[in-house]
């Protein structure tokens, strides 16, 4: 077998035909059919192939949350997801949250509470916050959920619940108190 020449992004001209697949991703309500290298992440697909730069590449290891998007309504670190494994998935990025020129309620709450500073982590924080709201509404408990809480129905989102559920999203500026307040505003 002859070695292949690969460029910096791993998409060299010597690639074997079996290293790429054609897939369809529904991004913010629009179907996109793409042919991608099997190693391409959802984050790189969004940023490099579709020009959607809201999700940020922070750590590229799933530890900071800057790349958080919603996949079929659930939050996920897009830097850890291979695009080929998401064929047919519905992916919502921060760019797809506003509807009819109106911001999502959590986006509005972030602005009202001044829940950002540099803004780098904000798209991931907002997508994760929307995921938190959905998880709590669906009754998914967290480590902070009291063991005596009912096992059916929504989980009440107090500050401790929100902090626990958002712990995978880091903010280098330390805007955490305002982020918790913004999510709490929308939860109530």
Q: What is the string of SSEs from the N terminus onward?
A: EEHEEEHHHH
Q: Counting H and I runs of at least 4 residues, what is the number of helices?
A: 5
Q: Which CATH architecture of the largest domain?
A: Orthogonal Bundle
- In order across it, which strands form the biggest sheet? 2-1-5-3-4
Q: In percent terms, what proportion of residues is strand? A: 5-15%
The total beta strand count reads 5
Distance between the termini: 61 Å
Kindly report the name of the CATH homologous superfamily of the largest domain: [2Fe-2S]-binding domain
**Could you say how many structural domains there are in total?**
2
Fraction of residues in helices?
A: 25-40%
Which assembly state applies to the chains in this document? single chain
Shape call: globular
Assign the CATH topology of the largest domain: DNA polymerase, domain 1
Estimated structural class: alpha+beta
Contiguous uncertain segments of 5+ residues: 1-14
At the first level of CATH, the class of the largest domain is Mainly Alpha
**Largest sheet: number of strands, sense, barrel closure:** 5 strands, mixed
Write down the overall mean pLDDT: 91
């Amino acid at each position: 077998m002859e070695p292949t020449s690969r460029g910096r992004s791993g998409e060299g001209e010597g690639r074997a035909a079996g290293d790429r697949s054609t897939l369809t991703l529904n991004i913010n309500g629009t179907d996109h059919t793409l042919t991608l290298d099997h190693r391409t992440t959802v984050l790189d697909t969004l940023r490099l192939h579709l020009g959607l730069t809201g999700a940020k590449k922070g750590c590229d290891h799933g530890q900071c949350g800057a790349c958080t998007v919603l996949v079929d309504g659930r939050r996920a670190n897009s830097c850890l997801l291979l695009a080929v494994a998401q064929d047919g998935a519905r992916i919502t990025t921060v760019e797809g949250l506003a509807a009819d020129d109106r911001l999502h309620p959590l986006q509005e709450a972030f602005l009202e509470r001044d829940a950002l500073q540099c803004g780098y982590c904000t798209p991931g924080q907002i997508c994760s916050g929307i995921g938190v709201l959905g998880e709590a509404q669906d009754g998914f408990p967290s480590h902070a959920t009291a063991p005596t809480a009912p096992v059916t129905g929504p989980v009440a989102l107090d500050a401790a619940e929100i902090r626990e559920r958002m712990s995978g999203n880091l903010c280098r500026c330390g805007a955490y108190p305002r982020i918790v307040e913004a999510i709490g505003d929308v939860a109530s």
